[in-house]
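Narrative progress, year one. The postdoctoral researcher (J.K.) led the effort to move from monomer predictions toward full complexes, under supervision of the PI. The following entry was the first complex the group processed end to end, covering 906 residues in total.
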Amino acid sequence: MSWPEAADYDLVVQNPSLSFIDSELAGGHAQQNLMGFPKSFSGNFAIVYVIETWLSVKAVKCFIKEHSEQYRRYEAISECLARLQSPYFVEFEYILNGIKLKGGQYPVLKMDWVSGDLLYSYIEKNIADSAKLMFLAERWREMAVSLHRSGIAHGDLQHGNVIIHNEQIKLIDYDGMYVHALANLKATESGVRHFQHPSRSDQFGPYLDNFSHWIIYTTLVALSLDPSLWSKFNNDEPEFLLFKRSDFDAPHSSALLTCLRSHAEERLQKYAQFIEQLLRYELEHIPPLEPELPLSSKTVLWWAQNLPPKMTDWWLSAGPPTQPRPLSSKACATTSAMANGGNQGNNPATPSAGTSGATSSASVSGARASQASGKLPIQSTGQLPDWIVISNSGSGSTSAVTGVPGPGNSQAKGSVTNLASLQPTVTNQNPSAAAAKLISHYLNLASDPYLYVQSPAKLLMLTLSSFGAYACYFFLLIWLDLRARTHLNKLFSDPLDFVDFALLVKPLSQIRNEALYRRCSVDFNPAAVAAGLALYSLLILNLLWRCFVPCSDHIAKLQDFIFMDSLYIALALCLIPVQLVMNELSGLNKQELKERSLAFNTYDAVWPAWGLILVFAFMTQNH
Amino acid sequence: MTEQTYVAEISRRNPTCVVFLIDQSGSMMDPFGRTPGKVKAQGVADALNSLLQNLVLKCVNGNEIREYIYLSIVGYGGANASPALLGALKGKDIVSVGELAHNTARTDVVDDGNGGQAKRPVWFDAVGSGETPMKAAFEKARAIVADFLSGHQKCFPPIVINITDGIYTGEDPTSSAESIGRLSSEDGNVLLFNLHIADSAESPVHFPDNDAQLRDQYAKWLFNISSTLPAPFVQAAIAEGFSNISSTSRGFVYNGDFNSVVKFFNIGTDPARSDKRSVSVAG
């Protein structure tokens, strides 16, 4: 198929009613540019026009070249994005016979138009606002985590494909996207080279964006900590931000990396080392930008120092703070340092982010680290930076948020305020979207290349935390049960009673009547038993699933956990009125009902209260 | 000079330059062999206007124009070779793509192919009279390119595209053509491509790697002064659907129809069209 030229499209989009098949587009008109011709944006494969319809503004992409398997790609990407409901993408529709031209019909991609600043101009506008840039950096990290968790990659992350709208990141241009359904294809493009790893060619996988994420995240953090880098290393050059291809091709002669390596900000020194290390990897092995660890304890560190380091085992390969693991070779040492760099980068609440303005020497930073990490003694080894402790320790994070004292700390306040609002990645979703997301999340787990198997420590912690959460859940049930019984003056000696109650095998009306209750151990309600068993089987399966399938990050796990459990409990709550009605219809005589009416009212008032509490918990935890 | 050539990025900081040499001799007003309803000059003008529009569109981003490329349109007919753009750009040796976008000679209202009317920019009209001073054209191109190179040593090598019906008049332009090919940027030598549009209805020859199938002596001559296609162009030509392209193919097309004229332009300027991306992935 020979594709039309840009000039051909330019002609026909002037008359949308004649050229577009889609009724919405056909009713619109093309925005004009200053030259009086249709406003357009060019890419390598396509030209995008802006069509204003009566309802909204659409971007219409017309193709001048074809990707291999273009239709299949867009179908798969569209299907995947619809399922994920990710806030970082806009909706689009691939219309196969979208536009009439020279007697033929050609596909178009209809997208929502996103207004806002492109990343470059956003940085340019806000270069003096460190807090804003740091905020964006952390938003970026959240996005990287979210994309990684979903197992998708954009494929061409660069400043021209990122729009900042109300401080929210939107990605555009999905031509090069990787989604699971396309796993057996090759990449259609290799991205803008100032943002891409030198080894990038036609590889195609969920790792595609990892290097670009590190580069852009580092850029944002670096500019936030030291805005003067912008004039020094960008200098109004519109093709890149800070890093350019020559920095990657020859890191040792790179002025930027040299500057960062010897920068007063310790964090930037680490990043420079870290990026140099990334350049030695193959593209497939670049680790993702990871979320911070929600669990922070000595256990993590213990595991960290007792597990052999692996390239992909990112956060666990960090060296211990107290007794550095003997490092056999220089390469190994730098690997550890990199891991630390990664962790540092991941943690939105690191003191250095908050106290950047104040910190200008390593000694200050070291003191801060000791203070922040509290009980853990710090021993700086030179090779293994001590702030790994901060990254992994809860006390460190707390100190950071509450504000580590620092002299002349002018910008810390703003940063900390923003950082405090950056609690990890709980995307606000409606329940159905969250459920869809959850399912896809589970489906994607098996192919998560980085976090699938390698961390017994992670696995153990997840398991323990799951059990812990379940213990809390059962405690809640028991407590409510006991409360109900106290209220009724019906405390029973048999400890199995409340288990029966929790399993809902006992009609409530029988519980209200002690005489009936004493019989109820043999007097099952089959429907309630079946429902109770089904419910609890689900819970147990869910628990097992959580224990034995590792997850790409713990926050997601907890988030899913809360969501699923809330769902189950909500289901249980739904069963209660059903059961009440059944019991009242079949169980008690009217006399008994009359006698017990007071008890009935007060007792059952507990249930809606419980329901309200859970609904509230569900809403807050998922927001 | 680096080992790899024709890999420089084409960017706003490092733009490149394309020179079109358009035969405007009297013979160009004869009908085109393969499309007898149209005179050669008109076909070339339409193709060139369309190409310029495509180049402008390639560099337009909303209301911003990215100056990736500088263009020179030189006509040669009659006594000498001179700038051929019309309107506000008349007489300019070289213009940026932004100047081009903002200064159309006029806007034609044409049939949009779907039964509607639409605007189309025009920069260049078909004209033709007198002799064919091709040597002067090559000299002019050489001067323009040398001037551009003096300010852009690192640029992607400029491209000179000569469109002619073959028969030059006056002095033999071979040495001037060769002197163009000896100019270079740090990224490689300047390229000279030739498009030979003939009066005959012979089947076209695209990017040949030898002159065996060319019977016309001027075609053979044009083949011989054409540069070998560098790797990115070979890829682009293959992507455009041309077969039998080898690493020794020359930047020469004999008697292509007007579609292939446009395609030839596209290939000749493809690296310039490759946006901000590396030319090694162009096509």
